Amino acid sequence: SLLYDVLPRHIADALKDGKPIEPERREVVTIFFSDIVNFTTISSKLEPWKVSKFLDRLYSNFDSFAQAHGVFKLETIGDAYMAVTNLLEDQVEDHAVRIARFALDAIECASTTLQDEDAPELGTLKIRVGIHSGPVVANVIGKQRPKYTLFGDAVNTASRMESTSIPGKIQCTEVS
């Protein structure tokens, strides 16, 4: 079922069985945010279906990297990709390293992903990446289209790391 593709198994099981979902606190996770540099400009020059195609190519690769590194993809919103480690499984020893390796793969992948396969002269993509480790609360919001999401200052800090990062680089806090 689609629920199991977009939600953690234990959450999907509870929703399927009609059980209430309680917020879950994790003392430390590592959060990854990325954003495509100049996305608004790029998307204004391409047909919408071409934008959707390059996003699909890029994020399908990110999804494969996430699986390979034991990283949980939380969501994509437009050109933003959010992922986390040490949330659904205990990765206490290496959660920051897992995210860092994932981030390196994501940056390399973006740098080889064409904006438009029919017009390679337009060039490839660049992303900005931010990483932060800290405590979060995870919960499901909504009933009709339930969304599993994270809350806490760690999320905001990771997002700020991304928004102030240099294109093609990873910016992380000392904590990570």
TrEMBL record:
Annotated Pfam families: Guanylate_cyc
GO biological process entries: intracellular signal transduction; receptor guanylyl cyclase signaling pathway
Family annotation (SUPFAM superfamilies): Nucleotide cyclase
Signal peptide limits: none
Gene Ontology molecular function terms on file: adenylate cyclase activity; guanylate cyclase activity; nucleotide binding; peptide receptor activity
CDD domains: CHD (cd07302)
Limits of the Guanylate cyclase domain: 30-162
Protein name: Guanylate cyclase domain-containing protein
Upper classification of the organism: Eukaryota, Cryptophyceae, Pyrenomonadales, Geminigeraceae, Guillardia
